[in-house]
Amino acid sequence: MRLAGLPFTYPPFAAVVMVPFALLPWSVAVAVWTLGTFVSLIAVWKLSTGNRLASPVLLAVVAGSLVLEPVRETLGFGQVNLMLCALVLYDLLGPAERRGRGIWVGLAAGVKLTPLVFFGLLVVTRQWKALAHAAAAFVVTMLVGFVVTPHGAKEYWTSLLADTTRIGGLAFSSNQSWNAFLIRLTGDLDGGGLVWAGLVVVTVGGGLWLARLLWVTGERVAAVSVTALVGLLCSPVSWSHHWVWAIPLGVAVIGRLTKYRVVFGVLWFGVFTIAPIWWPPNHDNRELDWSFAEQFSGNAYLIAAMVAVVLLTLRLRHNCRSGIDRLDPAECQADLGDIGLVGGPGQAPVVGGGGGLRRRRGDSAVRVGPHRG
User: Fold this and answer.
1) String of DSSP letters for 235-257
2) Which has fewest Cβ within 10 Å: 22, 32, 288, 360?
3) For 91-116, b where at least 16 C-beta lie within 10 A, e where not — what string?
4) Of 326 and 19, the one with more pLDDT
5) How far are the Cα atoms of 13, 201, 210 from residue 221, in angstroms, in the given order?
6) Which of 240, 246, 268 is nearest to 75 (CA)?
7) Which helix (H) or strand (E) holds 359?
8) Are 22 and 69 in contact (CB under 8 A)?
9) Which strands, in side-by-side order, build the sheet including 350-353?
10) What pLDDT, on a 0 to 100 scale, did the predictor assign at position 321?
């Protein structure tokens, strides 16, 4: 199936979800979808900031974020990215005791496979109940696809899924992933090969390690955003409109900085506004002839992502060295499941367990934040 020359590349369940829109007049369907995307953008900002922004400020920030290139592209293509981002944030940032937590992640993965990366976060943070809910919901979406269109579902899961060329040219500058970076750098249209596979292994391992550490310290938005970044980097294709996760990731980094927050915020959201990825020659595999300088602007989202990861990691290391477990600094990262971090010099050690993070005060332990498993 094609619309405006572009193939439908999502799982069959996504087509089932879209059926109601097919029953509406085209103009009405576009209006409803755009409204849903805008509402999702509001939800992403509210969830990313912990609903701490006053309504006028929130509306101003949302309006300003409409100029971000991933948001512009999502609206222009009628993409589902912001809706899925909002669903995942709502599900994973919600209370652990909320009934059915994890189901929305599974349904999101049934619509578009990229949210499967959040199953990894549930695994490394040992959220087994939520993982079971997510897996069950995802399986249901597969079964629905087979019931509605047996032949289409079989073709998708057995042949189309592995064919990344069905999505478009992998070298295209809009593809901001490790695979595309290596293709543009080497000129090999067959993909990054073993180098890409190695990068994927390192990114998954290191990314989920960082996400787990952020999660157990209560930095939930940062943990979810880093997990999303793992998916963006490791996917063979991550179009620029997939990078709406730049919003919660940027908010998470700003929240952890003690200096230069405004400077970082301007630079971070500035990159995703001016979108340097479109400056070098693009389309028709002209990306394969980029100069060394053009590689920097053409892979700007990847570079920005690495800066965010470095800042998050350095801040965690600073916390460990400045006030956590002064008697044994190595233990600060020894058991990610049993530690917590608090920022700032001179603060007392923090110990954590299944019940939450606690700061020692004298001989007592005072609870300072929830640790929802």
Assistant:
1) SS---GGGGGGHHHHHHHHHHH-
2) 22
3) bbbbeeeeeebbbbbbbbbbbbbbbb
4) 19
5) 28, 23, 12
6) 240
7) strand 356-361
8) no
9) 350-353, 356-361, 364-369
10) 56
